Amino acid sequence: MAHRGTYFKSSPAAAFEAAFEKIYRQKMRELPITRPHLAVRALGFAPFHGHWIGALVTPWSILVVLASGNEQTWPAVQVGKIMPVRLPAGAFHFLGMQEESLGEFLACSLMSPIEPVYRQKDCEAFAAKALALMMTPAAEASKPSGAASTELTRRDFFAPRPDKEMR
Predict the structure, then answer these.
(1) How are strands ordered across the β-sheet holding 103-111?
(2) Alpha helices, DSSP H, located in the chain
(3) Residue 82 pLDDT more than 60?
(4) Rounded distance, CA 103 to CA 164, Å?
(5) Full-model pTM
(6) Are 75 and 55 in contact (CB under 8 A)?
(7) I need a labelling partner for 2 at 20 to 30 A (CA). Which of 13, 30, 76, 147 fits?
(8) What is the pLDDT of residues 116-145, one digit of tens each?
(9) In angstroms, rounded to a whole number, what is the distance separating the alpha carbons of residues 84 and 65?
(10) Residue closest to 106 by CA, chosen among 137, 85, 127
């Protein structure tokens, strides 16, 4: 059983997948906002200032999560309260959350509920691209990166169109 004092020494990706799969089976499966064709997937977890940041696709939402990695630098998290988290691209609003097997963590909702037209690969591509953009310093994100790059509009960031492939 995890609690406030849960700190991950290595990537928490597997722990998030297991915890959110359990949430889906026990609490979310029958709700109309779920998309049963989607699976729980943790993506791109990497160290960030002594903690862990990654993306999470669930049948009901797409999130970027920040998990604790260091007791001394983990902020006081108030469950259910919004707090700003400064990432390389700027400040983003994260919700304080707690789950028995994960302890406290912060989550930034990117999409909830997920539109039925999105497939697993679309959701994972969106989550990975959003995480990459959040972790790219604003000055770098505004530089043109060559003819092969795909232009991502503000609208795409918040609600990608399934007909537009994201790289």
Answers:
(1) 41-48, 51-57, 62-67, 103-111, 90-99, 82-87
(2) 13-23, 120-134, 138-141, 154-158
(3) yes
(4) 37
(5) 0.81
(6) no
(7) 30
(8) 889 999 999 999 999 999 999 987 756 665
(9) 13
(10) 85
